[in-house]
Amino acid sequence: MSKIMITGTSKGIGYDAALSLARGGHEVIATMRNPNSSKLGEIVAKESLPVEIYPMDVDDNDSVVDVFARAGAPDVLINNAGILSYDTIEDESQENFEAIMNTNYFGVVRCCKAVIPEMRENRSGCIINIGSVAGIIAVSPSAAYSGSKFALEAFSEVMAQEMRPFGVRVYLVQPGIIATPMATTEFPMPKSDSEYLNGGRITALFKFAEQGEAPTTLVTDKLTSLIEGNSPHLRHPVGPDSLIFLGYRASVGDDRFIAAWGASTDDEFLERTRSDMLIDLGPFMP
User: Fold this and answer.
1) Mean pLDDT of the chain
2) What's the CA gap between 79 and 243, in Å, rounded?
3) So what's the pLDDT on residue 213?
4) Where are the domains positioned within the chain?
5) 182 pLDDT exceeds 80?
6) What predicted TM-score, i.e. pTM, was given to this entire model?
7) Which residue among 62, 121, 259, 281 is the one 20 to 30 A from 209 at the CA level?
8) Using H for helix, E for strand and C for coil, what is the string for 113-151?
9) Catalytic residue chosen out of the listed positions 15, 86, 105, 145
10) What is the C-alpha separation between 61 and 245, in angstroms, rounded?
11) Closest CA relative to residue 86, chosen from 178, 190, 196
């Protein structure tokens, strides 16, 4: 069994992964900004699970260094902490652009740098970064979020190259739209009075995806298989829509893709997505 550190465990994928992996016999170090905001501690105590909970802010280098020093080096690091925002470039504040990049990208960099030296020396270990299909397919208005996930794609690919000679496994999990609070009840609605039409389109896409079955257990099952297995592959799409989205982007050129998501009218947008993605977002448009 492994000692596993997971970031962003207050809810969603991280919460489910912490409980599932602990129930499977692994020792889990669960981190989050504010443990008092989560029910994780209650479940851990009730079931007497092997989980230690630490307050940690991946945006803060001192916080990361302190927790890794106190918790000890893990065998597995799962970088899950992340924030979501959907506003056009004009509507998104500069502060939000920087905050999203700080958490979704630099937060991963901080945590990886905290474990890489010891994993390298021990010539063993596993690092799993939770990316997104948004790291491959960038649709408006996701410049801030997709930008951070595109950066994570490059970082993970380079890290996999650097760590392979030392026996450290590196994986990038690419969920589609998963039924987490961030994607459902807490979905960050785009600016309602925007001059752009794209906010309604991304909202429709998420509402469409809610019709399918995409529980957090899909990601947790993938994490378990990667930790306990020995996959040679870097990238691992997860979810019923992930391969659809990735296949769609790979099948159309830049011009057609931009024409669809940059359509001047919603009717044109709906026609394009019906023909290119084979889905009807009309019933979900605001």
Assistant:
1) 96
2) 22
3) 79
4) 3-191+214-240
5) no
6) 0.95
7) 259
8) HHHHHHHHHHCCCEEEEECCHHHCCCCCCCHHHHHHHHH
9) 145
10) 35
11) 190
Asked whether the beta carbons of 234 and 170 are under 8 A apart, the reply is yes
Which pLDDT belongs to residue 211?
82
| 54 a catalytic residue | no
pLDDT band at 209 (very low <50, low <70, confident <90, very high): confident
Convert the pLDDT of each residue in 12-58 to its tens digit.
999 999 999 999 999 999 999 999 999 999 999 999 999 999 999 99
Measured between alpha carbons, how far is 277 from 189 in angstroms, rounded to an integer?
A: 23
Facing residues of 235 across strands?
Answer: 172
CB 112 within 8 A of CB 225: no
CATH classification (class only), 3-191+214-240: alpha beta
Q: How many residues does the chain have?
A: 286
- DSSP code at position 179: -
Other Cβ atoms less than 10 A from the Cβ of 76: the count is 23
5 sits in which H/E element:
strand 3-6
The 235-238 sheet, strands edge to edge: 51-55, 27-32, 3-6, 76-79, 126-130, 169-175, 235-238
Q: Three-state secondary structure along 222-266? A: HHHHHHHCCCCCCEEEECCCHHHHHHHHHHCCHHHHHHHHCCCCH
Condensed to tens digits (0 to 9), the pLDDT of residues 229-283 reads 999 999 999 998 899 899 999 999 999 999 999 999 999 999 999 999 999 999 9
Contact 27, 74 (CB under 8 A): no
What values do phi and psi take at 13, rounded to 5? -60, -45
pLDDT of residue 52: 98
